[in-house]
Amino acid sequence: MSPAVDTRFPEDVRAALLAEIRDYLPAFLRSDASERHDPVGDVKELLRLEEGDLERVVSVHACLHQGMVEFGEKLGEGIRRPLYASTRPAEQGQAVRGQVDWSATVARRSLVGGDPSRFVVRSARRVFDIPENRALVWLLDRIRARIGRAASGKSEKADAWVGGINKLKAQVKAARQAEWLRGVEPELPTQSTIKRLRAARVAFYRDHLAGALSTMLSLEDPSDRVLVELLCERYFEPAQDWLLFEVCVALRLARGFARSSGRPRKGRLMSGTGGAPYARYAYADGSEVSLILQTWPAAAGSSALAEATQRHKLASASSRPDLFIVRTGPEPDVAVLELKASYRPTYLREGLVRLLGYLAECPSAWTRQPSGWLVAPASEVFEDADAADGTIWIVSADRVAEAAVARFAPAAESG
Protein backbone atom coordinates (compact mmCIF):
# COMPACT_ATOMS: atom_id res chain seq x y z
CA MET A 1 0.00 0.00 0.00
CA SER A 2 0.98 3.64 -0.02
CA PRO A 3 3.81 4.82 2.25
CA ALA A 4 2.95 6.81 5.35
CA VAL A 5 1.35 10.11 4.40
CA ASP A 6 1.35 13.62 5.75
CA THR A 7 -2.04 13.51 7.47
CA ARG A 8 -3.12 12.38 10.92
CA PHE A 9 -6.79 11.75 11.48
CA PRO A 10 -8.62 13.52 14.29
CA GLU A 11 -9.03 11.18 17.23
CA ASP A 12 -12.77 10.71 16.68
CA VAL A 13 -12.26 9.82 13.00
CA ARG A 14 -9.53 7.34 13.83
CA ALA A 15 -11.66 5.78 16.57
CA ALA A 16 -14.57 5.38 14.15
CA LEU A 17 -12.37 3.66 11.53
CA LEU A 18 -10.90 1.34 14.13
CA ALA A 19 -14.37 0.48 15.45
CA GLU A 20 -15.48 -0.33 11.90
CA ILE A 21 -12.57 -2.72 11.44
CA ARG A 22 -13.25 -4.38 14.79
CA ASP A 23 -16.87 -4.79 13.75
CA TYR A 24 -16.42 -6.20 10.25
CA LEU A 25 -13.07 -8.00 10.23
CA PRO A 26 -14.43 -10.98 12.24
CA ALA A 27 -17.23 -11.38 9.70
CA PHE A 28 -14.69 -11.22 6.88
CA LEU A 29 -12.55 -13.93 8.48
CA ARG A 30 -15.14 -16.34 9.82
CA SER A 31 -15.37 -19.83 8.37
CA ASP A 32 -18.80 -19.49 6.74
CA ALA A 33 -17.69 -16.35 4.89
CA SER A 34 -15.08 -18.18 2.82
CA GLU A 35 -14.94 -21.34 0.74
CA ARG A 36 -11.54 -22.11 2.23
CA HIS A 37 -11.09 -21.06 5.84
CA ASP A 38 -7.62 -19.65 6.45
CA PRO A 39 -7.86 -16.54 8.63
CA VAL A 40 -4.08 -16.21 9.01
CA GLY A 41 -3.64 -16.25 5.24
CA ASP A 42 -6.52 -13.82 4.80
CA VAL A 43 -4.95 -11.36 7.24
CA LYS A 44 -1.57 -11.62 5.50
CA GLU A 45 -3.17 -10.82 2.15
CA LEU A 46 -5.32 -8.02 3.52
CA LEU A 47 -2.48 -6.26 5.36
CA ARG A 48 0.22 -7.19 2.84
CA LEU A 49 2.43 -8.45 5.64
CA GLU A 50 5.89 -9.67 4.70
CA GLU A 51 6.96 -13.20 5.62
CA GLY A 52 7.24 -13.40 9.37
CA ASP A 53 5.50 -10.08 10.02
CA LEU A 54 2.29 -11.61 11.31
CA GLU A 55 4.20 -14.03 13.52
CA ARG A 56 6.17 -11.09 14.88
CA VAL A 57 3.00 -9.13 15.61
CA VAL A 58 1.53 -12.18 17.38
CA SER A 59 4.74 -12.60 19.40
CA VAL A 60 4.79 -8.95 20.44
CA HIS A 61 1.17 -9.24 21.51
CA ALA A 62 1.97 -12.36 23.53
CA CYS A 63 4.80 -10.59 25.37
CA LEU A 64 2.91 -7.37 26.05
CA HIS A 65 -0.55 -8.77 26.79
CA GLN A 66 -1.70 -7.44 30.16
CA GLY A 67 -2.05 -10.93 31.60
CA MET A 68 1.51 -11.78 30.52
CA VAL A 69 2.86 -8.56 32.00
CA GLU A 70 1.19 -9.36 35.33
CA PHE A 71 2.54 -12.92 35.15
CA GLY A 72 6.06 -11.55 34.72
CA GLU A 73 5.63 -9.20 37.66
CA LYS A 74 4.60 -12.09 39.94
CA LEU A 75 7.00 -14.67 38.50
CA GLY A 76 9.80 -14.15 41.03
CA GLU A 77 7.40 -14.57 43.94
CA GLY A 78 5.83 -17.64 42.35
CA ILE A 79 9.23 -19.32 41.84
CA ARG A 80 10.03 -18.83 45.51
CA ARG A 81 6.76 -20.51 46.60
CA PRO A 82 6.18 -23.34 44.11
CA LEU A 83 3.53 -25.99 44.23
CA TYR A 84 4.80 -29.48 44.98
CA ALA A 85 3.63 -32.98 45.79
CA SER A 86 4.77 -34.90 48.87
CA THR A 87 6.03 -38.49 48.81
CA ARG A 88 7.14 -40.73 51.64
CA PRO A 89 9.46 -43.43 50.27
CA ALA A 90 10.39 -46.27 52.64
CA GLU A 91 13.93 -46.09 54.08
CA GLN A 92 15.65 -48.57 56.40
CA GLY A 93 18.15 -47.69 59.09
CA GLN A 94 18.99 -47.71 62.76
CA ALA A 95 18.59 -43.92 63.08
CA VAL A 96 15.02 -42.63 63.19
CA ARG A 97 14.74 -39.56 60.95
CA GLY A 98 11.09 -39.19 60.16
CA GLN A 99 7.88 -41.03 60.80
CA VAL A 100 8.29 -44.74 61.62
CA ASP A 101 6.20 -47.07 59.51
CA TRP A 102 5.52 -49.61 62.25
CA SER A 103 3.66 -52.15 60.14
CA ALA A 104 6.52 -52.23 57.62
CA THR A 105 9.07 -52.31 60.44
CA VAL A 106 7.38 -55.29 62.16
CA ALA A 107 7.04 -57.11 58.84
CA ARG A 108 10.73 -56.56 58.09
CA ARG A 109 11.84 -57.75 61.53
CA SER A 110 9.68 -60.88 61.28
CA LEU A 111 11.66 -62.09 58.31
CA VAL A 112 14.36 -64.67 58.91
CA GLY A 113 17.46 -62.79 59.92
CA GLY A 114 15.55 -59.56 60.51
CA ASP A 115 17.52 -56.98 62.50
CA PRO A 116 15.44 -55.80 65.52
CA SER A 117 17.51 -52.61 65.70
CA ARG A 118 16.46 -51.35 62.25
CA PHE A 119 13.38 -49.32 61.49
CA VAL A 120 11.42 -48.56 58.33
CA VAL A 121 11.04 -44.79 58.15
CA ARG A 122 9.02 -42.69 55.71
CA SER A 123 10.33 -39.12 55.47
CA ALA A 124 8.35 -36.55 53.52
CA ARG A 125 10.01 -35.38 50.29
CA ARG A 126 8.94 -32.58 47.99
CA VAL A 127 8.38 -33.47 44.34
CA PHE A 128 8.24 -30.52 41.92
CA ASP A 129 7.77 -32.56 38.74
CA ILE A 130 3.98 -32.19 38.66
CA PRO A 131 1.64 -31.10 35.81
CA GLU A 132 1.34 -27.52 37.11
CA ASN A 133 5.11 -27.00 37.09
CA ARG A 134 5.61 -28.77 33.78
CA ALA A 135 3.08 -26.29 32.34
CA LEU A 136 5.05 -23.44 33.94
CA VAL A 137 8.29 -24.60 32.29
CA TRP A 138 6.47 -24.95 28.95
CA LEU A 139 5.25 -21.37 29.26
CA LEU A 140 8.70 -20.02 30.15
CA ASP A 141 10.13 -21.73 27.06
CA ARG A 142 7.35 -20.39 24.84
CA ILE A 143 7.86 -16.87 26.19
CA ARG A 144 11.56 -17.05 25.37
CA ALA A 145 10.73 -18.20 21.84
CA ARG A 146 8.15 -15.42 21.42
CA ILE A 147 10.64 -12.83 22.68
CA GLY A 148 13.12 -14.00 20.04
CA ARG A 149 10.53 -13.61 17.28
CA ALA A 150 9.29 -10.27 18.59
CA ALA A 151 12.82 -8.89 18.33
CA SER A 152 13.55 -10.45 14.93
CA GLY A 153 12.59 -7.46 12.79
CA LYS A 154 12.61 -3.70 12.68
CA SER A 155 9.44 -1.74 13.31
CA GLU A 156 8.58 1.91 13.68
CA LYS A 157 6.93 0.92 16.96
CA ALA A 158 9.92 -1.13 18.21
CA ASP A 159 11.09 1.58 20.59
CA ALA A 160 7.70 1.61 22.30
CA TRP A 161 7.74 -2.18 22.64
CA VAL A 162 11.35 -2.96 23.50
CA GLY A 163 11.23 -1.85 27.15
CA GLY A 164 8.34 -4.13 28.09
CA ILE A 165 9.73 -7.08 26.13
CA ASN A 166 13.21 -6.75 27.67
CA LYS A 167 11.70 -6.57 31.14
CA LEU A 168 9.81 -9.82 30.57
CA LYS A 169 12.97 -11.38 29.15
CA ALA A 170 14.90 -10.54 32.32
CA GLN A 171 12.11 -11.89 34.53
CA VAL A 172 12.04 -15.21 32.67
CA LYS A 173 15.83 -15.50 32.70
CA ALA A 174 15.94 -14.98 36.47
CA ALA A 175 13.18 -17.56 37.04
CA ARG A 176 15.01 -20.14 34.95
CA GLN A 177 17.91 -20.07 37.45
CA ALA A 178 15.78 -21.69 40.17
CA GLU A 179 17.35 -24.96 41.27
CA TRP A 180 14.05 -26.80 41.65
CA LEU A 181 13.06 -26.06 38.04
CA ARG A 182 16.02 -27.91 36.58
CA GLY A 183 14.46 -31.32 37.11
CA VAL A 184 11.12 -30.37 35.56
CA GLU A 185 10.53 -31.05 31.86
CA PRO A 186 8.18 -28.83 29.82
CA GLU A 187 4.77 -30.28 28.98
CA LEU A 188 2.03 -28.77 26.81
CA PRO A 189 -0.79 -28.05 29.26
CA THR A 190 -4.10 -29.80 28.78
CA GLN A 191 -7.48 -28.45 29.79
CA SER A 192 -7.23 -30.70 32.81
CA THR A 193 -4.01 -28.94 33.82
CA ILE A 194 -5.59 -25.52 33.35
CA LYS A 195 -8.50 -26.63 35.53
CA ARG A 196 -6.09 -27.78 38.25
CA LEU A 197 -4.30 -24.44 38.09
CA ARG A 198 -7.50 -22.45 38.45
CA ALA A 199 -8.21 -24.38 41.64
CA ALA A 200 -4.66 -24.16 42.99
CA ARG A 201 -4.11 -23.06 46.59
CA VAL A 202 -1.21 -20.76 45.60
CA ALA A 203 -2.32 -17.41 44.18
CA PHE A 204 0.48 -17.19 41.59
CA TYR A 205 -0.63 -20.42 39.92
CA ARG A 206 -4.34 -19.70 40.26
CA ASP A 207 -4.45 -16.00 39.37
CA HIS A 208 -1.49 -15.52 37.01
CA LEU A 209 -0.07 -18.73 35.54
CA ALA A 210 -3.47 -20.09 34.46
CA GLY A 211 -4.36 -16.87 32.61
CA ALA A 212 -0.93 -16.49 30.97
CA LEU A 213 -1.10 -20.09 29.74
CA SER A 214 -4.57 -19.54 28.28
CA THR A 215 -3.30 -16.45 26.44
CA MET A 216 -0.27 -18.24 25.04
CA LEU A 217 -2.32 -21.27 23.99
CA SER A 218 -4.81 -19.05 22.17
CA LEU A 219 -1.95 -17.58 20.12
CA GLU A 220 -0.50 -20.94 19.08
CA ASP A 221 -3.30 -21.27 16.51
CA PRO A 222 -5.14 -17.95 16.71
CA SER A 223 -8.86 -17.88 16.02
CA ASP A 224 -10.57 -15.20 13.95
CA ARG A 225 -11.52 -13.23 17.04
CA VAL A 226 -8.06 -13.45 18.60
CA LEU A 227 -6.46 -12.28 15.34
CA VAL A 228 -8.78 -9.30 15.14
CA GLU A 229 -8.19 -8.28 18.74
CA LEU A 230 -4.41 -8.49 18.60
CA LEU A 231 -4.18 -6.72 15.23
CA CYS A 232 -6.37 -3.88 16.42
CA GLU A 233 -4.43 -3.60 19.67
CA ARG A 234 -0.87 -3.99 18.34
CA TYR A 235 -0.89 -3.25 14.62
CA PHE A 236 -3.07 -0.22 14.12
CA GLU A 237 -1.02 2.31 16.03
CA PRO A 238 -1.59 6.08 15.61
CA ALA A 239 1.47 6.33 13.35
CA GLN A 240 -0.33 4.06 10.91
CA ASP A 241 -3.50 6.02 10.25
CA TRP A 242 -2.80 5.61 6.54
CA LEU A 243 -2.91 1.82 6.90
CA LEU A 244 -6.02 2.02 9.05
CA PHE A 245 -7.73 4.00 6.28
CA GLU A 246 -6.63 1.65 3.52
CA VAL A 247 -7.70 -1.50 5.37
CA CYS A 248 -11.06 0.14 6.05
CA VAL A 249 -11.54 0.86 2.34
CA ALA A 250 -10.48 -2.68 1.45
CA LEU A 251 -13.00 -4.14 3.90
CA ARG A 252 -15.78 -1.81 2.73
CA LEU A 253 -15.27 -3.09 -0.81
CA ALA A 254 -15.27 -6.69 0.41
CA ARG A 255 -18.47 -6.13 2.38
CA GLY A 256 -20.19 -4.52 -0.59
CA PHE A 257 -19.37 -7.35 -2.97
CA ALA A 258 -20.20 -10.00 -0.36
CA ARG A 259 -23.70 -8.56 -0.05
CA SER A 260 -24.22 -8.28 -3.80
CA SER A 261 -22.89 -11.78 -4.51
CA GLY A 262 -24.66 -13.57 -1.66
CA ARG A 263 -22.11 -16.38 -1.90
CA PRO A 264 -19.12 -17.30 0.26
CA ARG A 265 -15.95 -15.43 -0.52
CA LYS A 266 -13.71 -17.61 -2.66
CA GLY A 267 -10.32 -18.76 -1.42
CA ARG A 268 -7.37 -16.70 -2.50
CA LEU A 269 -5.67 -17.55 -5.76
CA MET A 270 -2.33 -19.15 -4.95
CA SER A 271 -0.98 -19.45 -8.49
CA GLY A 272 2.45 -18.12 -9.31
CA THR A 273 1.25 -15.52 -11.80
CA GLY A 274 -0.25 -12.16 -11.05
CA GLY A 275 -1.46 -10.85 -7.72
CA ALA A 276 -3.29 -12.95 -5.16
CA PRO A 277 -6.70 -11.40 -4.46
CA TYR A 278 -7.58 -10.94 -0.83
CA ALA A 279 -11.21 -11.53 -1.84
CA ARG A 280 -13.07 -13.00 -4.82
CA TYR A 281 -16.81 -13.13 -5.40
CA ALA A 282 -18.73 -15.22 -7.92
CA TYR A 283 -22.01 -14.25 -9.61
CA ALA A 284 -24.80 -16.20 -11.28
CA ASP A 285 -23.92 -14.95 -14.80
CA GLY A 286 -20.47 -16.58 -14.58
CA SER A 287 -18.59 -13.40 -13.81
CA GLU A 288 -16.20 -13.04 -10.90
CA VAL A 289 -14.97 -9.93 -9.10
CA SER A 290 -11.51 -9.94 -7.51
CA LEU A 291 -10.02 -7.41 -5.11
CA ILE A 292 -6.24 -7.25 -5.40
CA LEU A 293 -3.83 -5.24 -3.23
CA GLN A 294 -0.51 -3.73 -4.30
CA THR A 295 0.09 -6.00 -7.27
CA TRP A 296 -0.83 -5.71 -10.93
CA PRO A 297 -3.35 -8.36 -11.97
CA ALA A 298 -2.14 -11.02 -14.37
CA ALA A 299 -4.52 -9.81 -17.09
CA ALA A 300 -3.16 -6.24 -17.06
CA GLY A 301 -0.91 -6.92 -20.03
CA SER A 302 2.63 -5.74 -20.69
CA SER A 303 4.09 -2.83 -18.72
CA ALA A 304 5.42 0.12 -20.70
CA LEU A 305 7.59 1.01 -17.70
CA ALA A 306 9.14 -2.46 -17.53
CA GLU A 307 9.76 -2.48 -21.30
CA ALA A 308 11.47 0.92 -21.19
CA THR A 309 13.74 0.03 -18.27
CA GLN A 310 14.70 -3.23 -19.95
CA ARG A 311 15.34 -1.54 -23.29
CA HIS A 312 17.64 1.06 -21.75
CA LYS A 313 19.33 -1.40 -19.37
CA LEU A 314 18.13 0.45 -16.28
CA ALA A 315 17.63 -1.23 -12.96
CA SER A 316 14.30 -3.00 -13.01
CA ALA A 317 11.39 -0.89 -11.81
CA SER A 318 7.83 -1.77 -10.94
CA SER A 319 4.97 0.34 -9.70
CA ARG A 320 2.71 -0.83 -6.88
CA PRO A 321 -0.82 0.52 -7.15
CA ASP A 322 -2.85 0.34 -3.96
CA LEU A 323 -5.82 -1.71 -5.12
CA PHE A 324 -7.42 -3.21 -8.21
CA ILE A 325 -11.00 -4.24 -8.84
CA VAL A 326 -11.09 -6.86 -11.59
CA ARG A 327 -14.12 -8.47 -13.19
CA THR A 328 -13.75 -11.53 -15.40
CA GLY A 329 -16.46 -13.30 -17.37
CA PRO A 330 -18.90 -12.04 -20.01
CA GLU A 331 -17.93 -8.36 -19.58
CA PRO A 332 -14.35 -7.98 -18.30
CA ASP A 333 -13.53 -4.73 -16.53
CA VAL A 334 -10.66 -3.31 -14.46
CA ALA A 335 -10.15 -0.22 -12.30
CA VAL A 336 -7.09 0.85 -10.33
CA LEU A 337 -7.61 2.63 -7.01
CA GLU A 338 -5.16 5.03 -5.39
CA LEU A 339 -5.98 5.46 -1.68
CA LYS A 340 -4.98 8.72 -0.02
CA ALA A 341 -5.61 9.25 3.69
CA SER A 342 -5.25 13.00 3.33
CA TYR A 343 -7.20 16.23 3.49
CA ARG A 344 -4.56 18.23 1.59
CA PRO A 345 -5.39 19.27 -1.99
CA THR A 346 -1.75 19.09 -3.06
CA TYR A 347 -1.50 15.48 -1.91
CA LEU A 348 -4.71 14.53 -3.67
CA ARG A 349 -3.41 16.11 -6.88
CA GLU A 350 -0.29 13.97 -6.54
CA GLY A 351 -2.60 10.96 -6.35
CA LEU A 352 -4.28 11.94 -9.63
CA VAL A 353 -0.87 12.25 -11.31
CA ARG A 354 0.06 8.81 -10.05
CA LEU A 355 -3.19 7.37 -11.43
CA LEU A 356 -2.43 8.81 -14.86
CA GLY A 357 0.95 7.10 -14.68
CA TYR A 358 -0.68 3.74 -13.92
CA LEU A 359 -3.09 4.12 -16.84
CA ALA A 360 -0.23 4.88 -19.20
CA GLU A 361 1.89 2.05 -17.88
CA CYS A 362 -0.49 -0.72 -18.96
CA PRO A 363 -2.75 0.88 -21.59
CA SER A 364 -4.23 -2.43 -22.75
CA ALA A 365 -5.67 -3.22 -19.30
CA TRP A 366 -8.51 -0.69 -19.31
CA THR A 367 -11.84 -1.42 -20.98
CA ARG A 368 -14.13 1.17 -19.42
CA GLN A 369 -13.86 4.71 -18.04
CA PRO A 370 -13.07 6.02 -15.52
CA SER A 371 -10.29 3.48 -15.01
CA GLY A 372 -8.39 5.33 -12.29
CA TRP A 373 -10.17 6.05 -8.99
CA LEU A 374 -8.70 8.28 -6.30
CA VAL A 375 -10.23 7.37 -2.93
CA ALA A 376 -9.92 9.90 -0.11
CA PRO A 377 -11.75 10.68 3.13
CA ALA A 378 -14.89 12.73 2.53
CA SER A 379 -14.10 16.41 3.08
CA GLU A 380 -14.55 19.92 1.73
CA VAL A 381 -11.21 19.66 -0.06
CA PHE A 382 -12.84 18.14 -3.15
CA GLU A 383 -16.37 18.20 -4.54
CA ASP A 384 -18.25 14.93 -4.94
CA ALA A 385 -19.24 14.15 -8.51
CA ASP A 386 -20.64 11.15 -10.32
CA ALA A 387 -18.30 9.05 -12.42
CA ALA A 388 -18.01 10.60 -15.86
CA ASP A 389 -16.36 9.60 -19.12
CA GLY A 390 -12.95 10.89 -18.05
CA THR A 391 -10.12 8.50 -17.33
CA ILE A 392 -9.74 9.43 -13.66
CA TRP A 393 -12.22 10.15 -10.88
CA ILE A 394 -12.21 11.15 -7.21
CA VAL A 395 -14.64 9.26 -4.99
CA SER A 396 -14.93 9.50 -1.23
CA ALA A 397 -14.23 6.49 0.98
CA ASP A 398 -17.87 6.70 2.11
CA ARG A 399 -19.14 6.12 -1.43
CA VAL A 400 -16.48 3.86 -2.96
CA ALA A 401 -18.08 0.49 -2.07
CA GLU A 402 -21.48 1.50 -3.43
CA ALA A 403 -19.87 2.83 -6.62
CA ALA A 404 -17.76 -0.29 -7.08
CA VAL A 405 -20.73 -2.64 -6.70
CA ALA A 406 -22.82 -0.55 -9.08
CA ARG A 407 -20.15 -0.82 -11.77
CA PHE A 408 -18.66 -4.28 -11.32
CA ALA A 409 -21.50 -6.48 -10.02
CA PRO A 410 -23.99 -7.78 -12.63
CA ALA A 411 -26.97 -5.45 -12.84
CA ALA A 412 -29.55 -7.97 -11.54
CA GLU A 413 -27.47 -8.77 -8.47
CA SER A 414 -26.14 -5.30 -7.69
CA GLY A 415 -29.65 -3.88 -7.64
Q: What does this protein structure show overall?
A:
The protein is of the alpha+beta class. Helix 6 packs across helix 9 (203-220). The protein is built from 15 helices and 11 strands. The longest helix has 21 residues, at 241-261. The protein starts with 10 loop residues before the first helix and ends with a helix. Mean pLDDT is 85; it is low at 270-274.
Strand order of the largest sheet: 6-7-8-9-10-11
Proportion in helices: 40-55%
Number of strands: 11
User: From the structure provided, what is the oligomeric state, counting identical versus distinct chains?
Assistant: single chain
Uncertain stretches: 270-274
* Main structural class: alpha+beta
Estimated share of beta-strand residues? 5-15%
Mean pLDDT: 85
Global shape: elongated
The total of helices stands at 15
How far the N terminus sits from the C terminus, by CA atoms, comes to 31 Å
What radius of gyration results from the CA coordinates? Answer: 31 Å
Q: How is the biggest beta sheet arranged?
A: 6 strands, mixed
* Total individual domains: 2
Would you list the SSEs in sequence order as H and E?
HHHHEEEHEEHHHHHHEEHEEHEEHH
Please render the helix and strand layout as text.
Layout: H1 11-29, H2 39-47, H3 53-64, H4 66-80, E1 85-87, E2 90-93, E3 99-100, H5 102-110, E4 119-122, E5 125-127, H6 131-150, H7 158-175, H8 191-198, H9 203-220, H10 224-235, H11 241-261, E6 279-282, E7 288-293, H12 304-311, E8 323-328, E9 333-339, H13 345-361, E10 372-376, E11 392-396, H14 400-408, H15 411-414
Parallel strand pairs: 9-10, 10-11
Antiparallel strand pairs: 1-5, 2-4, 3-4, 6-7, 7-8, 8-9
Helix pairs in contact: 1-10, 1-11, 3-6, 3-10, 4-7, 4-9, 6-7, 6-9, 8-9, 11-14
